[in-house]
């Protein structure tokens, strides 16, 4: 089983190298060379599997010749240790809650699987793997919690001082152990530039094995396929037609859904819901994609002007927009609509949406009105308490903070303060060589 680059100017690699490299040397994204569909009877009997077992079946089907299967089962079952329930919100609109993991966002699936897979792959290397991540909030939390305590790996997280929420900062700075937080006197872009420079530093890379944990990594997408099947399992008896709506930013999540489709998953339609960062929506409307600088919205994790996983979507559909449109419908909503619907759904149905899920709900509602025969599922990608500053004034009450986040709030913050300066960062990186 090999992985090829979407730019097709780099050699094919095995799973270990696809995971440890992240990006292909030609700057393309790795794709599995083949995706074999399940047989029909798998879907007929899908209820027999609980979520971890189902995840193991899916990963075996996809990676059968890429890794020792017993090891794969072990990794998958350790990663998928929290549920993904489908809940009815309004008539034929349901939500798939993906926020029951340690960082309260769907990125936990990707981070937990990636951490265990990487740890396994570096076991025989006799040296530590260093993960470097720049974060504006959500990714860093999932990565910190996912990699915490993983053998053979040390994680350095760079975040812009004063620009992540207090709860997010707790997730980055209170774990200790193999997680180090660098509090950078600068912006997220500064943090990202420092990480990029480290990857281009050939002297450093001779002595330090480094890798990234961002969403271009194929190992973050694989575990995201699992919950599409888990959702299907829960609703298959309820409707003739199924629609899945994905609040999207970098389009990694929906790409995982498309992998699921290739594996035979019987969804009839996908809907990509975006905020005012609507490049993909315009692409579907006009047939031309134009990358733009991102604009800030309430659904911050979707503020992406140039979604990297578009390279994978274009690869799957051979750059044929008409073909993409047959599987993916798109819709874009602004902040006032997002705020209105958070209030409305709470007032009418008692369900608390987060700003990302709210964009998904809006797109699902519009779709459901045109397709009353469809059962529509939108993904709740984060728990509303992560965005309580936005949600609470709209619903007029406090959002309860789940236990896993509450325990971090009492812990002491530990960070290394640093200027947005590569020389200073390099001194820090050099000190890691003796770890
Ligand atoms: C990352 C994220 C998204 C966007 O997912 P993509 O895979 O980048 O499209 C949506 N919602 C939340 C809460 C996120 O953290």
What does this structure look like?
With about 425 residues, this protein is an alpha/beta fold. It has a domain at about 85-105 and about 220-400: Rossmann fold (3-Layer(aba) Sandwich). About 45% of the residues lie in helices and about 15% in strands. The chain contains 19 helices and 13 strands. The chain has helices spanning about 15-20, 40-45, 50-65, 70-80, 105-120, 140-145, 165-175, 190-200, 200-205, 220-235, 250-260, 280-285, 310-315, 320-325, 335-350, 355-370, 390-395, 405-410, 420-430; strands at about 5, 30, 85-90, 95, 130-135, 155-160, 180-185, 210, 240-245, 270-275, 330, 375-380, 415-420. α4 runs antiparallel to α5 (about 105-120). It is globular, with a radius of gyration of 21 Å. Pyridoxal-5'-phosphate (PLP) binds next to α11. Pyridoxal-5'-phosphate binds near residues 105, 247, 248, 356 and 382.
Short description:
With 435 residues, the protein is α/β, with parallel strands linked by helices. The protein is built from 19 helices and 13 strands.
Structural class: alpha/beta
Query: How many separate helices?
Result: 19
The order of strands across the largest sheet is 3-4-12-9-10-11
User: End-to-end distance, in Å?
Assistant: 34 Å
In CATH's first tier, which class of the domain at 83-106 and 221-400 applies? Answer: Alpha Beta
Helix content: 40-55%
Beta strand count: 13
Rounded radius of gyration (Å): 21 Å
Task: Report on the biggest sheet.
Answer: 6 strands, mixed
Low-confidence stretches: none
Kindly report the average pLDDT value: 95
CATH topological fold name of the domain at 83-106 and 221-400: Rossmann fold
Small-molecule binders: pyridoxal-5'-phosphate
User: Can you tell me the overall shape?
Assistant: globular
β content, as a range? 15-25%
**What is the CATH architecture term of the domain at 83-106 and 221-400?**
3-Layer(aba) Sandwich
């Amino acid at each position: 089983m090999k992985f090829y680059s979407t730019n097709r100017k780099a050699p094919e690699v095995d799973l270990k190298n696809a995971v440890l490299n992240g990006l292909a040397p030609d700057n393309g994204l790795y794709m599995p060379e083949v995706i074999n569909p399940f047989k029909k009877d798998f879907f007929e009997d899908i209820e027999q599997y609980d979520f971890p077992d189902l995840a193991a079946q899916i990963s075996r089907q996809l990676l059968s010749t890429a890794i020792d299967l017993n090891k794969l089962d072990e990794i998958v079952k350790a990663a998928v240790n929290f549920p993904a329930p489908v809940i009815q919100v309004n008539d034929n609109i349901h939500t798939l809650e993906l926020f029951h993991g340690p960082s309260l966002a769907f990125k936990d699936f990707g981070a937990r699987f990636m951490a265990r897979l990487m740890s396994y792959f570096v076991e025989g290397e006799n040296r530590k793997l260093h993960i470097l991540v720049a974060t504006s909030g959500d990714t860093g939390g999932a990565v910190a919690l996912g990699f915490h305590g993983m053998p053979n790996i040390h994680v350095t997280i760079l975040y812009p001082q004063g620009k992540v929420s207090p709860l997010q900062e707790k997730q980055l700075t209170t774990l200790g152990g193999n997680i180090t937080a660098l509090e950078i006197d600068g912006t997220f872009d500064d943090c990202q530039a420092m990480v990029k420079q480290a990857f281009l530093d050939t002297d450093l890379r001779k002595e330090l094995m480094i890798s990234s944990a961002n969403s271009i990594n194929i190992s973050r997408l694989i575990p995201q396929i699992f919950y599409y099947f888990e959702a299907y399992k829960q609703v298959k008896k309820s409707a003739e037609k199924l629609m899945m709506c994905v609040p999207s930013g970098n389009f990694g999540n929906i790409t995982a859904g498309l992998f699921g489709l290739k594996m035979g998953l019987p969804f009839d339609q996908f809907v990509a819901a975006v905020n005012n960062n609507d490049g993909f929506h315009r692409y579907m409307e006009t047939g031309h994609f134009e990358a733009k600088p991102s604009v800030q919205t309430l659904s911050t994790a979707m503020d992406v002007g140039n979604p990297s996983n578009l390279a994978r979507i274009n690869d799957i559909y051979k750059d044929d927009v008409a073909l993409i449109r047959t599987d993916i419908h798109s819709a874009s909503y602004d902040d006032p609509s997002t705020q209105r619907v958070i209030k409305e759904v709470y007032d009418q149905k008692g369900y608390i949406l987060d700003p990302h899920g709210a964009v998904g709900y809006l797109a699902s509602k519009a779709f459901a009105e045109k397709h009353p025969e469809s059962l529509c599922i939108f993904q709740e990608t984060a728990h509303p308490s992560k965005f309580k500053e936005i949600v609470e004034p709209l619903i007029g009450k406090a959002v309860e903070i789940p236990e896993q986040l509450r325990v971090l709030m009492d812990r002491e913050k530990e960070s290394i303060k640093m200027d947005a300066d590569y020389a200073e960062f390099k001194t820090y990186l050099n000190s890691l060589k003796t770890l």
